Amino acid sequence: MIYQFGLGVAITFFLAEFNYPQLGLHLLSSLSGVYADGLPGLALLLLRVSLGGLFILHGYPKIMHLRRWAEALKMPVFLCFLSAASMLGGGIFLIIGFLTLLATLPILGSMIYAIYLDISGSKPFVAQDPYLIPEEQYQGPLGKGEPPSWEKAFMYCVMLIAIAVLGPGAYSLDAGIFGR
């Protein structure tokens, strides 16, 4: 996540240097220069904090069991570390609303790759309801579970794109730092 931060800062200063104030420092926060307040700001706060919490819950166990996760995906440990670290660190940054755009982009990349893995594995977009599947046909790791699909990764992508475009809202560190 450090390299993404450094790249984002370099691009931002490059754009600000060439007199594109609309593409200046607020790009660290969102694609929009407006920080919504009132009810829209509260809705963005709820979305940001909820999504950040979910990514912390997804990223922490992946960091703790990195080798096993990498073996299950048949991916290099380093790439799995980058993905898990972006979920964990990005989740924290989303909750506090700091460098929001830079927090969403690496997680978005991980979720797009998750969708790719699910589609290439012939998983459906929406899986059949687990209560409608006969008992002997699907058992999750701890008994009855959710059948695999790429619906959840897709919805995470939609929420991350909304935050990246709309910004973190007025109730964020970004608004305090970069707000107008």
User: What is the total tally of β strands?
Assistant: 0
Helical segment tally? 7
| Content-based structural category | mainly alpha
Principal-axes geometry comes out as globular
Give the overall average pLDDT: 82
Low-confidence stretches: none
SSE run? HHHHHHH
Beta-strand content: under 5%
Distance N terminus to C terminus? 27 Å
Tell me the major beta sheet: none
Round the Cα radius of gyration to an integer and report it. Answer: 18 Å
Q: Which percent range fits the helix content?
A: 55-70%
Question: Could you characterize what this model shows?
Answer:
By secondary structure, this protein is mainly alpha-helical. Helix content is 63%, strand content 0%. The chain is built from seven helices and no strands. It is globular and about 60 Å long. The mean pLDDT is 82.
Present the secondary structure layout.
Blueprint: H1 2-17, H2 38-64, H3 66-73, H4 77-96, H5 100-120, H6 151-166, H7 173-178
Helix pairs in contact: 2-4, 2-6, 3-4, 4-5, 5-6
Summarize the entry for a quick read.
The chain is an all-alpha fold and 180 residues long. 63% of the residues lie in helices and 0% in strands. It has helices spanning 2-17, 38-64, 66-73, 77-96, 100-120, 151-166, 173-178.
